[in-house]
Amino acid sequence: AVAGFQMADINIELKESVLSVSGSSDSEDDAEYLHKGISNRSFTRTFNLADYVEVNAATLKDGILKIDLERIVPEVLKPKTIKVTSE
């Protein structure tokens, strides 16, 4: 959930199987608030991705950031089925 952030405020970076999501808000508001419901402070989250996981896309809708990941295992590493035959 990234409520209060715009697409330009969010940075997504993938480096060596580490996905970093960060957001920063440049709102310099000198007004005094009694209550401020949505926090605009900066954040950084990192995720260690498993082997063979690729980031396909990222979407932001209604304050929810969705990152689509896909695990692509090479054919060499997939399990093989051995057919049993009689002699």
Description:
The protein is mainly beta. It contains no helices and 5 strands. It has strands at residues 10-15, 18-23, 43-48, 53-61, 64-71. The strands form 2 sheets. A 3-stranded antiparallel β-sheet has the order 1-2-3, with no helix packed on it. The model has no long low-confidence stretch (mean pLDDT 86).
Topology readout:
Layout: E1 10-15, E2 18-23, E3 43-48, E4 53-61, E5 64-71
Antiparallel strand pairs: 1-2, 2-3, 4-5
- Main-sheet strand order equals 1-2-3
* Helicity, as a percent range: under 10%
Largest sheet: 3 strands, antiparallel
Using only CA atoms, what is the Rg?
21 Å
Order of helices and strands, N to C? EEEEE
